[in-house]
Amino acid sequence: MADLAPTIIPIVILYFEVLGIFGNVNLILATIRKKHLQTKHGVLLALTSFYQLMCLLGELVNVSFALSGVEIKRNMCFILMSPYLVFSCLQSTMFLVLALDVLIAILFPLKHMVTRLGVYVSIASIPAVVYAVLILSLAIAGMISMETNPRILLCNPPLSVHPKVASFWINWNGFSNLGVLVIYVAVYAVVSSRDKRERKMGRIVMHSAERKVLISLLWLITVFASTWCTCNIILAIAAWFEQTQDVAAVQSYVVVFALMAYSVNYYVYFTKNHAYRRVFLEQLAWIFPKRFFNGIYWNETGSRVGALPSLRTPAANVASRIERRNVGNGLNSSTPRRL
């Protein structure tokens, strides 16, 4: 198993590198280009994608050493992995921040809406920055206190730091993951409860904003649980065993789940969010102008395959209804009444 790790892992890593870098760059670019995506949740999501993009670039160091077959000493690996370690801490905490943001938006919608974007994002980013600084400080202290400097098979964050620091980092990630799942369950419960009350009052809620949030959350929970949570569970189990080449190989294979977590934001929002999907299709038209045009996908024969519904804000819908009402009143006023 340890012998296969340097051969198989780089191929898998490169595959997700391409998918992840393409997706994260597109999501960040879409947020920069379109003001309607620059909401509090949208900016936090773009920050998370930026951190994950940096993690993907940091993983290229692991690929280079795996392909070259050159072993590296732990202290040198730590120096190379330090930026990756910091961004990994930032992105993992942002999962929790994104979950809290959705919960705050549902429980305190007015306060969430009136808070300035820059202030809100700055305050929301504090936990991620504090956690990253803490882990980096502990890793530096652990590296200084180490009496030995062994050569390691592959260079990645869990193998580059002191085992005690790695254990603390993995355990904290586990508690953070649990917190995210608890918050998402709370959001699900709140939205479901509101929908039930609306139905009892005879109101239609199938197309409400909260219903759309609920559907998106179900997908986010599924993706989150099957990637990042799986990664940390396997790392926590591996930490119970004595460090051997086989254990190191397992820790290296687990990076595949982390890479999935780093890569999925773009694809989840492409499939489940119309606002993001339209912008993504516009950007795909830059690369494939014959296939994507005006939010429409065309097949090789030039036939129209599908289109997205037009994006209309609630304010635009209200204005449209008022306009139609005025037009109707104008028509009625111009029509002579019959006695």
TrEMBL record:
<dbReference type="InterPro" id="IPR047130">
    <property type="entry name" value="7TM_GPCR_Srsx_nematod"/>
</dbReference>
<feature type="transmembrane region" description="Helical">
    <location>
        <begin position="169"/>
        <end position="192"/>
    </location>
</feature>
<dbReference type="InterPro" id="IPR019424">
    <property type="entry name" value="7TM_GPCR_Srsx"/>
</dbReference>
<protein>
    <recommendedName>
        <fullName>G-protein coupled receptors family 1 profile domain-containing protein</fullName>
    </recommendedName>
</protein>
<dbReference type="InterPro" id="IPR000276">
    <property type="entry name" value="GPCR_Rhodpsn"/>
</dbReference>
<dbReference type="GO" id="GO:0004930">
    <property type="term" value="F:G protein-coupled receptor activity"/>
</dbReference>
<dbReference type="Pfam" id="PF10320">
    <property type="entry name" value="7TM_GPCR_Srsx"/>
</dbReference>
<keyword id="KW-0472">Membrane</keyword>
<feature type="transmembrane region" description="Helical">
    <location>
        <begin position="213"/>
        <end position="241"/>
    </location>
</feature>
<feature type="transmembrane region" description="Helical">
    <location>
        <begin position="247"/>
        <end position="268"/>
    </location>
</feature>
<dbReference type="GO" id="GO:0016020">
    <property type="term" value="C:membrane"/>
</dbReference>
<keyword id="KW-0812">Transmembrane</keyword>
<keyword id="KW-1133">Transmembrane helix</keyword>
<dbReference type="InterPro" id="IPR017452">
    <property type="entry name" value="GPCR_Rhodpsn_7TM"/>
</dbReference>
<feature type="transmembrane region" description="Helical">
    <location>
        <begin position="44"/>
        <end position="65"/>
    </location>
</feature>
<feature type="transmembrane region" description="Helical">
    <location>
        <begin position="85"/>
        <end position="110"/>
    </location>
</feature>
<feature type="transmembrane region" description="Helical">
    <location>
        <begin position="12"/>
        <end position="32"/>
    </location>
</feature>
<feature type="domain" description="G-protein coupled receptors family 1 profile">
    <location>
        <begin position="23"/>
        <end position="269"/>
    </location>
</feature>
<feature type="transmembrane region" description="Helical">
    <location>
        <begin position="117"/>
        <end position="144"/>
    </location>
</feature>
